[in-house]
Amino acid sequence: MKDVLKQLARDLKAEKLRTFLTIFGIVWGTVAISLMLAFGTGLHTQLIKSTAGLGDRIVIAWPGLTSIPFEGLGKGRKIRITDDDLTTARGNVPGLKALSAEYSNNLKVEYGTKTLSVDTSGVAPEFGSMRNLIPQAGGRFIDDIDLAEQRRTAFIGNKLAKDIFGETPAVGKTITVNQSPFLVVGVLVEKDQDSSYSGRDNEKMFIPSTTFRALNGDKYVDNFVFQAAASTDTKAVIEKLRSALGGRLRFDAKDKEALSMWDTTEQFQFFDTFMLAFNAFLGIIGVLTLVVGGIGVSNIMNVVVEERTREIGIKMALGAKQRWILSQFLFETMLVTFLGGAIGFAISLTVCAIFPKLGLAEYVGNPVVSPLVAALTSLALGLVGLVAGYFPARDAARLDPVVAMKL
Amino acid sequence: MTTQNHIIRMDDIRKTYDTGKVKVDALKGIHLEIEKGEMIAIVGPSGSGKSTLMNLIGCLDTPTSGTYEIGGQAVSGVTRDELAEIRNRRVGFVFQAFNLLPHITALENVELPMLFGGIKPAERHKRASELLERVGLGDRLDHKPTELSGGQMQRVAIARALAMEPDIVLADEPTGNLDSSAGGDIMSIFTDLWQQGRTIVIITHDPALSRRASRVVEIHDGRITSDQATNAAA
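The joint structure predicted for all components is written out below.
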């Protein structure tokens, strides 16, 4: 065993070019496939992340004008929804995980000498988790007590916090909103958001909906946001909510204009489908790369055996058993595969480590190398090399030593 | 003569090569007994079957029919691996084309049969150095074959042939690729080995080499036509 390894090291050293070419073939295949799939994974993650910036598989609904006559009421009637309507409807729709009204207006915010005009939403605590409004350390989102007691608390976007407070901590500071003092309770952690319906969250301010109504005298919601307990049930929940609200506010459940909805789960589904196709595409390219790499590796192994038939013959004449000859080839291929795979994996990791510094993460995400993919790729290439090397080696070991020596 | 002294016993050995279309009878009934301590030259024109005979004696091939014993061990119906083991322990080869492995040193080449024979590394190293010293290459242990002359390469091959203390040393045209001076050196080494009690079988058509043997066997058309002791036998 030790002798086999020693012999092996010597042979690899003696045949530097061949060893290099074989290892290079495996390195190349491993890098190509690892990186391709790494970028695929990175892109997928980034798409999900950007989309999730708006919310976690939520539906946003806006009341509008009826477009279908209903129970003797003509079309073009304005639908107005109150908190009570939503609370009642919620009780009638099973499978609803969270729901929050949203009242919106542009409010004047003052702090020290600064005066800003800020898009503000009055919302319920559930809004935070649905819309992925995650507070930075030391802060919190609007909570149930804020809502119940109409507290003047505010959760502000990270960009807004910078505009008002610069680098100093915002939590605990008091700002003036339409002449009323508000306590800043939380600041949004930075997030990627590729779509919105009322401005980017990082520039917005969120206050309890009860406080908002008291401050502005709003009675009707501007829109509301909800989330199904299971994202696959979203369609059913939408239908139930439509008929619940339609029954109470007297509009046709099929009237898409009376209550228009934006189902963001469709986007997630689209990405899943898109990524499936994308991954299939990468997979095909990957398989082709493997085939090409495999041909390269097997060619080299084949040549190696041909070159070494004489050597095999000599060894057999001197009393080497078939097993000895074959195990040397086996070890050789294993070592070369392992080396090539390890180098390929290291290169892929390096590229993935450097890539984020190029600043393209916002568009294509950061690639993530899967050790499993790298291992499987080099294993597959090694297997091809092994098969390609093993059979000629076995044939050579089966030759008469005399014949093999004369080749 | 008792059976004990016979290193090689061949009885009615036949070898037929069947290429599918043509059947070639290379050996047509060989009877040959070689005693321990003999130096025997097998001579004959090309195509006479002497290479076939050498392959059979060296256990590189098995006969189509007939019985063959080497050192009292029957060589028939054995597997390839068993045949390899017999070669390893009982036969030391010296080839015309040297057949050294080019990438490894002289010392490692000599160690090779011992590697296959399962000898421990320290013992291998010791024995290989001694053998190379004995053939006059004590200062060339770490040279690769490409750095050696033809005569030196053949001496490495002889050292390699002796590594496993074989029953016979089987040499196939050992001077064929050498100039006359280097060839003379190699012949002297064989003579010395014989005088030390080794059994040596040389296949050759070099009269200078066969003259040194104790016995000359001529082979023609697959049959032994002459088997004579020479003056050297005395």
